[in-house]
């Protein structure tokens, strides 16, 4: 869906107005025409504006209405004020000073070079005055300018956008509307299905915004929205690439992904924009004829459980997991509860790109399955442990774990202290939750558990306030759950300490939870995971569950520190390198490594022996990054080998 039309709101998005002089001249003009003091007219006008600024009637928020109302309060009836008001507003526009937004000027100039992109502006009244002011400010003429006088009504109105489509003959999903007001500019545009982006983030508005008008030039220069947010395992992105229109179309495609009337479970995390995206996603699914079961806010593993428990065809979780606040996205789940594999995500993308979906009429239902989720978690926990006798700090990061972690831990006997604190969502980075050891001392807690936004990751500090890394957590979960003969599925980047400490059989997969959990279901594994805080107990639900493993680690809290000391001693060093094309780089590296090193695996990237150390070099599934992991018996050796390999391959 290339963008064929960029439409701007002129007011503030393209230029700023210095209106002080204009208003002074206007009040002086009215003073001469009415006999009232200019200052008295100004005060009356300000009182009117203050009284109607929150009015839902757009006509009342217009300059024409407020000026006429001010004159009426001063004793000039409406019948006699009309002509004076029009003349006064003409004076206002003649005296208004326009200063161009420098980025806007640059952006418009760039867009004008591309003949296939229509540049439109939807503006306030007095077209000719605006044209002159904009020209003087250095902003070139637009292909199209639509004003209230064309539509017959004041903003906000869908008529602007209806006229835009009528005149240009461009489809709504090929038009991007840029505005600085959500209510005035973007909501009416969204009603007709236009793509929208908010320029400048205003307090109280949803988080769909663009950082710079320069991004619009990139879009016009041939970038297509879709590849920006379809990732290796799910959909993640930020506006303008990911927006409610994308969610609407995605819902339609998802609702008709396979023939027949589908039942789809939908849940979301706690982010404000997740509610907006969920609403449009469900709207699209219903328009495609699906039966949607809304299960509300909760972690991704909760939606996974609900999908399987309710025997739905698919599940969708609205979340961007651990990514920053401006991002959002969608995770897609099979009936078993595990995430979509590459081929099915590719099919979803193909249908999305081609606008392929059915048209029917579906329904929305709401189901509360939280108690069933907690019951199932408790039942599976008690297959290994009798209960929890520790004091636990639960750090939600304002995420979805607030609905599941503390309730489960309290059920199992834990003394729980919940911390609701704004912080980066990624709990797998120790620096993001470095405040927890102090909170543990203050509360005399035995353990602290922390979660990302959708609670599929967990991080832990032990009873001594020491950070437990992801590989150690995997080994500790293994010690608690795995018995001789059990199968354990682990991503290829998992430390060799798991192999050395387990009683079970380790089966390695590519990095990425869809590959890990799919293999776990296939193998009948009792445990699956990755060293980034993702751990799955498939007999509970087929998804990574920070909630379930918070109970597992809390039950071990008093012994956790000593158990860590008994694990095999290894040191792991990681580094990442930004590259233009990771896949090409990996092919080149494999060629060189095969010639010079002993290759252990090419399951995902290449894992090889480098002296006494083991190294893994692989392409990231979510960014233009090559990741390198080196593991050795000592920190010094791991660091030395990492430096040698980095210098050899990435100088």
Task: Tell me about this structure.
With 651 residues, the protein is α/β, with parallel strands linked by helices. 41% of the residues lie in helices and 21% in strands. The protein is built from 25 helices and 28 strands. The protein has a 6-stranded parallel β-sheet, sandwiched between helices. A 6-stranded mixed β-sheet has the order 9-13-12-10-11-14, with helices on both faces. Helix 1 packs across helix 2. It is elongated.
Blueprint (SSEs and pairs):
Elements: E1 5-9, E2 15-18, H1 20-34, H2 38-52, H3 63-73, H4 78-95, E3 97-100, H5 102-112, E4 118-122, H6 127-136, E5 144-146, H7 148-151, H8 159-168, E6 175-179, H9 182-191, E7 195-199, E8 209-210, H10 214-220, H11 225-229, E9 235-237, H12 244-254, E10 263-268, H13 272-287, E11 291-297, H14 300-309, E12 314-318, E13 328-334, H15 342-353, E14 363-366, H16 370-381, E15 391-395, H17 405-411, E16 415-419, H18 436-443, E17 447-451, E18 458-461, E19 467-468, H19 470-481, E20 487-491, H20 496-501, E21 505-509, H21 513-523, E22 527-530, E23 534-536, H22 546-555, H23 560-565, E24 571-578, H24 582-596, E25 598-601, E26 606-610, E27 613-619, E28 625-632, H25 635-650
Parallel strand pairs: 1-4, 1-6, 4-5, 6-7, 7-8, 10-11, 10-12, 11-14, 15-16, 15-17, 20-21, 20-22
Antiparallel strand pairs: 2-3, 9-13, 12-13, 17-18, 18-19, 22-23, 24-28, 25-26, 26-27, 27-28
Helix pairs in contact: 1-2, 1-4, 2-3, 3-4, 5-10, 12-13
What's the quick description here?
This protein has 651 residues and is an alpha/beta fold. Helix content is 41%, strand content 21%.
């Amino acid at each position: 869906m290339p963008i064929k039309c960029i439409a701007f709101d002129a007011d503030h998005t393209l230029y700023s107005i210095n209106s002080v002089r204009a208003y002074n001249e206007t009040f002086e003009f009215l003073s001469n025409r009415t006999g009232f003091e200019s200052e008295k007219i100004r005060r009356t006008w300000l009182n009117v504006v203050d009284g109607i600024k929150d009015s839902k009637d757009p006509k009342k928020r217009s300059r024409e209405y407020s000026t006429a109302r001010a004159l009426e309060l001063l004793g000039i009836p409406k019948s006699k004020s009309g002509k004076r008001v029009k003349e006064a507003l003409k004076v206002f526009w003649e005296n208004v000073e326009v200063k161009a937004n420098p980025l806007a000027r640059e952006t418009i100039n760039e867009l004008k070079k591309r003949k296939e992109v229509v540049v439109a502006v939807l503006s306030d009244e007095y077209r000719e005055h605006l044209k002159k002011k904009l020209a003087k400010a250095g902003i070139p003429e637009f292909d199209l300018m639509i004003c209230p006088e064309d539509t017959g009504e004041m903003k906000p109105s869908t008529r602007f956008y209806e006229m835009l489509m009528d005149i240009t003959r461009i489809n709504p999903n090929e038009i991007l509307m840029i505005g600085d007001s959500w209510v005035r500019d973007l909501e009416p545009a969204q009603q007709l299905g236009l793509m929208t982006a908010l320029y400048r983030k205003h307090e109280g508005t949803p988080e769909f915004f663009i950082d710079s008008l320069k991004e619009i030039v990139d879009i016009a220069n041939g970038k297509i929205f879709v590849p920006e947010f379809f990732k290796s395992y799910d959909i993640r992105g930020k506006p303008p690439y990911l927006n409610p229109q994308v969610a609407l179309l995605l819902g339609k495609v998802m609702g008709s992904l396979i023939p027949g009337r589908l039942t789809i479970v939908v849940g979301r995390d706690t982010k404000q924009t997740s509610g907006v995206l969920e609403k449009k996603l469900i709207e699209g699914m219903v328009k495609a004829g699906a039966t949607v079961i809304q299960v509300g806010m909760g972690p991704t593993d909760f939606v996974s459980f609900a999908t399987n428990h309710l025997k739905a065809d698919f599940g969708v979780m609205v979340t961007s997991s651990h990514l920053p606040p401006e991002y959002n996205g969608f995770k897609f789940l099979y009936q078993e509860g595990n995430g979509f594999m590459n081929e099915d995500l590719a099919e979803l993308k193909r249908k999305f790109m081609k606008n392929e979906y059915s048209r029917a009429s579906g329904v929305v239902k709401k189901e509360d399955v939280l108690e069933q989720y907690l019951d199932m978690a408790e039942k599976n926990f008690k297959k290994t442990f009798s209960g929890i006798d520790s004091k636990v700090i639960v750090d939600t990061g304002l995420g979805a774990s607030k609905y599941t972690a503390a309730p489960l831990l309290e059920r199992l006997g834990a003394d729980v202290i919940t911390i609701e604190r704004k912080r980066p969502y990624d709990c797998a980075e120790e620096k993001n939750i470095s405040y927890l050891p102090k909170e543990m001392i203050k509360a005399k807690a035995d353990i602290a558990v922390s979660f990302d936004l959708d609670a599929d990751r967990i991080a832990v500090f032990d009873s001594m306030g020491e950070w437990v890394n992801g590989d150690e957590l995997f080994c500790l979960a293994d010690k608690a759950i795995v018995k001789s003969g059990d199968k354990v599925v682990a991503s290829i980047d998992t430390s060799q300490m798991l192999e050395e400490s387990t009683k079970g059989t380790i089966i390695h997969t590519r990095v990425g939870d869809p590959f890990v959990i799919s293999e776990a279901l296939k193998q009948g594994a009792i445990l699956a995971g990755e060293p980034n805080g993702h751990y799955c107990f498939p007999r509970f639900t087929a998804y990574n569950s920070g909630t379930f493993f918070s109970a597992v680690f809390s039950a071990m809290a008093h012994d956790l520190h000593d158990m860590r000391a008994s694990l095999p001693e290894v040191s792991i060093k990681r580094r990442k390198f930004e590259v233009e094309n990771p896949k090409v780089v990996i092919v080149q590296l494999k060629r060189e490594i095969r010639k010079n090193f002993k290759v252990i695996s090419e399951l995902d990237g290449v894992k090889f022996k480098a002296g006494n150390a083991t190294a893994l070099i692989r392409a990231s599934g979510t960014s233009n990054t090559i990741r390198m992991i080196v593991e050795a018996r000592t920190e010094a050796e791991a660091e030395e080998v990492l430096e040698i390999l980095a210098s050899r391959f990435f100088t």
